Amino acid sequence: MKNDFLKYPLNIEKILRKKKSIKRELLLNSENFIKKNIAILGGSTTSEIKNILELFLLDNGIKPDFYESEYNRYYEEALFENDKLDKFNPDIIYIHVTNLNIVKFPKLTNNEKEINLLLNTEIEKYKSIWFSLEKYNCAIICVIHNNFGTSKMTGHLGSALAKKSETIIELEQNTVNKDWITVHCKQSRNYAFETFSFEVNDYGLPLVVDDLYDPLKSNG
User: Fold this and answer.
1) Is cis: bond before 64, omega within 30 of 0?
2) pLDDT in tens, 138-180
3) CB neighbours of 35 closer than 8 A, spacing ≥ 6?
4) Which of 10, 98, 106, 148 is the 20 to 30 Å CA partner of 137?
Protein backbone atom coordinates (compact mmCIF):
# COMPACT_ATOMS: atom_id res chain seq x y z
CA MET A 1 0.00 0.00 0.00
CA LYS A 2 1.44 3.34 -1.09
CA ASN A 3 1.80 6.11 1.46
CA ASP A 4 -0.34 9.15 0.62
CA PHE A 5 2.45 11.58 1.52
CA LEU A 6 4.67 10.02 -1.14
CA LYS A 7 2.20 10.41 -3.97
CA TYR A 8 2.56 13.18 -6.52
CA PRO A 9 2.32 16.12 -6.34
CA LEU A 10 4.75 15.99 -3.43
CA ASN A 11 4.61 18.29 -0.42
CA ILE A 12 8.27 18.27 0.58
CA GLU A 13 7.70 20.31 3.74
CA LYS A 14 5.17 17.77 5.05
CA ILE A 15 7.39 14.83 4.14
CA LEU A 16 10.34 16.34 6.03
CA ARG A 17 8.16 17.20 9.00
CA LYS A 18 6.51 13.77 9.21
CA LYS A 19 9.36 11.57 7.99
CA LYS A 20 9.61 9.56 11.22
CA SER A 21 5.90 8.72 11.34
CA ILE A 22 5.88 7.94 7.61
CA LYS A 23 8.78 5.54 8.11
CA ARG A 24 7.05 3.78 11.02
CA GLU A 25 3.91 3.34 8.94
CA LEU A 26 5.82 1.98 5.96
CA LEU A 27 7.67 -0.54 8.13
CA LEU A 28 4.39 -1.79 9.61
CA ASN A 29 2.67 -2.18 6.24
CA SER A 30 5.03 -4.80 4.81
CA GLU A 31 7.28 -7.65 5.93
CA ASN A 32 8.49 -8.86 2.54
CA PHE A 33 11.07 -6.17 1.82
CA ILE A 34 13.97 -6.57 -0.58
CA LYS A 35 17.09 -5.63 1.39
CA LYS A 36 19.83 -3.52 -0.18
CA ASN A 37 23.05 -2.02 1.19
CA ILE A 38 23.50 1.52 -0.13
CA ALA A 39 26.70 3.48 0.46
CA ILE A 40 26.50 7.26 0.12
CA LEU A 41 29.88 8.93 -0.39
CA GLY A 42 29.19 12.63 -0.10
CA GLY A 43 30.92 15.83 -1.06
CA SER A 44 28.42 17.68 1.14
CA THR A 45 25.85 16.91 3.85
CA THR A 46 23.77 13.89 2.80
CA SER A 47 21.65 13.08 5.87
CA GLU A 48 18.39 14.48 4.46
CA ILE A 49 19.05 12.86 1.09
CA LYS A 50 19.41 9.54 2.88
CA ASN A 51 16.24 10.06 4.92
CA ILE A 52 14.07 10.94 1.94
CA LEU A 53 15.58 8.20 -0.23
CA GLU A 54 14.80 5.68 2.50
CA LEU A 55 11.12 6.65 2.53
CA PHE A 56 10.67 6.22 -1.22
CA LEU A 57 12.54 2.92 -1.23
CA LEU A 58 10.41 1.55 1.62
CA ASP A 59 7.32 2.71 -0.24
CA ASN A 60 8.46 0.57 -3.18
CA GLY A 61 9.24 -2.56 -1.16
CA ILE A 62 12.98 -2.02 -0.67
CA LYS A 63 14.47 -1.83 2.81
CA PRO A 64 17.83 -0.05 2.63
CA ASP A 65 20.71 -0.20 5.06
CA PHE A 66 22.86 2.90 4.65
CA TYR A 67 26.53 3.69 4.97
CA GLU A 68 27.40 7.41 4.97
CA SER A 69 30.87 8.83 4.52
CA GLU A 70 32.12 11.62 6.72
CA TYR A 71 31.37 15.15 5.49
CA ASN A 72 33.21 15.82 2.20
CA ARG A 73 35.29 12.65 2.54
CA TYR A 74 33.94 10.86 -0.55
CA TYR A 75 37.34 10.80 -2.25
CA GLU A 76 39.33 9.56 0.75
CA GLU A 77 36.80 6.89 1.68
CA ALA A 78 36.71 5.61 -1.90
CA LEU A 79 40.47 5.61 -2.48
CA PHE A 80 42.06 4.58 0.79
CA GLU A 81 41.71 1.42 2.86
CA ASN A 82 38.23 1.38 4.36
CA ASP A 83 37.41 -1.59 6.58
CA LYS A 84 33.97 -0.24 7.45
CA LEU A 85 32.94 0.04 3.81
CA ASP A 86 34.41 -3.39 3.05
CA LYS A 87 32.39 -4.99 5.86
CA PHE A 88 29.29 -3.11 4.75
CA ASN A 89 29.65 -4.72 1.28
CA PRO A 90 27.47 -2.26 -0.67
CA ASP A 91 25.04 -3.30 -3.39
CA ILE A 92 24.86 0.29 -4.64
CA ILE A 93 27.28 3.18 -4.25
CA TYR A 94 25.95 6.71 -4.69
CA ILE A 95 28.62 9.38 -5.06
CA HIS A 96 26.96 12.70 -4.20
CA VAL A 97 29.03 15.58 -5.56
CA THR A 98 28.30 18.96 -7.11
CA ASN A 99 30.25 21.70 -8.87
CA LEU A 100 31.32 22.87 -5.40
CA ASN A 101 33.55 19.79 -5.20
CA ILE A 102 35.62 20.85 -8.20
CA VAL A 103 38.98 21.68 -6.64
CA LYS A 104 40.16 24.34 -9.07
CA PHE A 105 38.27 26.14 -11.84
CA PRO A 106 40.10 27.71 -14.79
CA LYS A 107 40.66 31.46 -14.81
CA LEU A 108 40.05 33.82 -17.71
CA THR A 109 43.82 34.26 -17.96
CA ASN A 110 44.51 30.51 -18.42
CA ASN A 111 45.58 29.36 -21.87
CA GLU A 112 44.28 26.20 -23.57
CA LYS A 113 47.10 24.02 -22.25
CA GLU A 114 46.49 25.15 -18.66
CA ILE A 115 42.75 24.58 -18.97
CA ASN A 116 43.26 21.07 -20.35
CA LEU A 117 45.60 20.31 -17.46
CA LEU A 118 42.93 21.34 -14.95
CA LEU A 119 40.32 19.29 -16.79
CA ASN A 120 42.50 16.18 -16.94
CA THR A 121 43.26 16.50 -13.23
CA GLU A 122 39.53 16.35 -12.45
CA ILE A 123 38.99 13.45 -14.87
CA GLU A 124 41.81 11.45 -13.30
CA LYS A 125 40.39 12.10 -9.84
CA TYR A 126 37.03 10.56 -10.72
CA LYS A 127 38.60 7.75 -12.72
CA SER A 128 40.64 6.79 -9.65
CA ILE A 129 37.41 6.69 -7.60
CA TRP A 130 35.80 4.55 -10.28
CA PHE A 131 38.64 2.03 -10.40
CA SER A 132 38.97 1.86 -6.62
CA LEU A 133 35.29 1.00 -6.18
CA GLU A 134 35.27 -1.68 -8.89
CA LYS A 135 36.03 -4.33 -6.26
CA TYR A 136 32.47 -3.96 -4.94
CA ASN A 137 31.06 -4.94 -8.34
CA CYS A 138 28.64 -2.00 -8.26
CA ALA A 139 27.14 -0.17 -11.22
CA ILE A 140 28.36 3.40 -11.79
CA ILE A 141 25.87 5.60 -13.61
CA CYS A 142 26.99 8.82 -15.34
CA VAL A 143 25.05 11.36 -17.39
CA ILE A 144 26.82 13.29 -20.15
CA HIS A 145 25.75 15.26 -23.23
CA ASN A 146 26.52 14.41 -26.84
CA ASN A 147 28.23 16.84 -29.16
CA PHE A 148 25.61 18.82 -31.06
CA GLY A 149 24.50 17.06 -34.23
CA THR A 150 26.40 13.83 -33.53
CA SER A 151 26.10 10.77 -31.29
CA LYS A 152 29.58 11.28 -29.84
CA MET A 153 29.89 12.18 -26.16
CA THR A 154 31.15 15.62 -25.26
CA GLY A 155 34.83 16.27 -24.59
CA HIS A 156 37.62 14.27 -22.99
CA LEU A 157 35.37 13.08 -20.17
CA GLY A 158 32.85 11.69 -22.64
CA SER A 159 35.54 9.80 -24.56
CA ALA A 160 37.00 8.35 -21.37
CA LEU A 161 33.60 7.19 -20.14
CA ALA A 162 32.65 5.65 -23.48
CA LYS A 163 35.77 3.48 -23.53
CA LYS A 164 35.11 2.15 -20.02
CA SER A 165 31.32 1.80 -20.16
CA GLU A 166 29.61 -1.58 -20.02
CA THR A 167 26.37 -0.12 -21.35
CA ILE A 168 25.69 3.18 -23.14
CA ILE A 169 22.10 4.42 -23.19
CA GLU A 170 21.23 7.26 -25.58
CA LEU A 171 18.23 9.57 -25.26
CA GLU A 172 16.91 11.73 -28.10
CA GLN A 173 13.77 13.60 -29.06
CA ASN A 174 11.37 11.38 -31.01
CA THR A 175 11.13 12.46 -34.68
CA VAL A 176 7.40 11.65 -34.97
CA ASN A 177 6.09 13.03 -31.67
CA LYS A 178 8.12 15.92 -30.29
CA ASP A 179 6.69 15.37 -26.81
CA TRP A 180 8.31 11.93 -26.58
CA ILE A 181 11.87 10.99 -25.69
CA THR A 182 13.23 7.84 -27.33
CA VAL A 183 15.67 5.61 -25.45
CA HIS A 184 18.17 3.44 -27.34
CA CYS A 185 20.64 0.90 -26.07
CA LYS A 186 23.58 2.21 -28.07
CA GLN A 187 26.13 -0.28 -26.72
CA SER A 188 26.03 -3.21 -24.33
CA ARG A 189 28.43 -5.97 -23.39
CA ASN A 190 25.43 -7.99 -22.22
CA TYR A 191 21.87 -8.22 -23.53
CA ALA A 192 20.54 -4.99 -25.03
CA PHE A 193 17.03 -3.79 -24.17
CA GLU A 194 14.46 -2.94 -26.83
CA THR A 195 14.13 0.68 -27.88
CA PHE A 196 11.22 2.50 -26.24
CA SER A 197 9.84 6.02 -25.79
CA PHE A 198 8.44 7.94 -22.86
CA GLU A 199 6.63 11.20 -22.22
CA VAL A 200 6.64 13.42 -19.13
CA ASN A 201 3.32 13.95 -17.36
CA ASP A 202 2.01 17.07 -15.60
CA TYR A 203 3.86 16.09 -12.40
CA GLY A 204 7.20 15.85 -14.19
CA LEU A 205 7.23 12.02 -14.12
CA PRO A 206 8.20 9.81 -17.09
CA LEU A 207 5.52 7.50 -18.54
CA VAL A 208 6.38 4.84 -21.13
CA VAL A 209 4.23 5.14 -24.26
CA ASP A 210 2.76 2.05 -25.88
CA ASP A 211 3.07 3.18 -29.50
CA LEU A 212 5.89 2.10 -31.78
CA TYR A 213 8.85 4.20 -30.71
CA ASP A 214 9.61 5.80 -34.07
CA PRO A 215 8.61 4.15 -37.38
CA LEU A 216 10.71 6.59 -39.42
CA LYS A 217 13.94 5.52 -37.75
CA SER A 218 13.22 1.85 -37.14
CA ASN A 219 15.65 -0.65 -38.61
CA GLY A 220 12.82 -2.99 -39.41
Assistant:
1) no
2) 766 666 666 666 666 656 666 766 776 788 888 888 888 888 8
3) 62, 63, 64, 65
4) 98
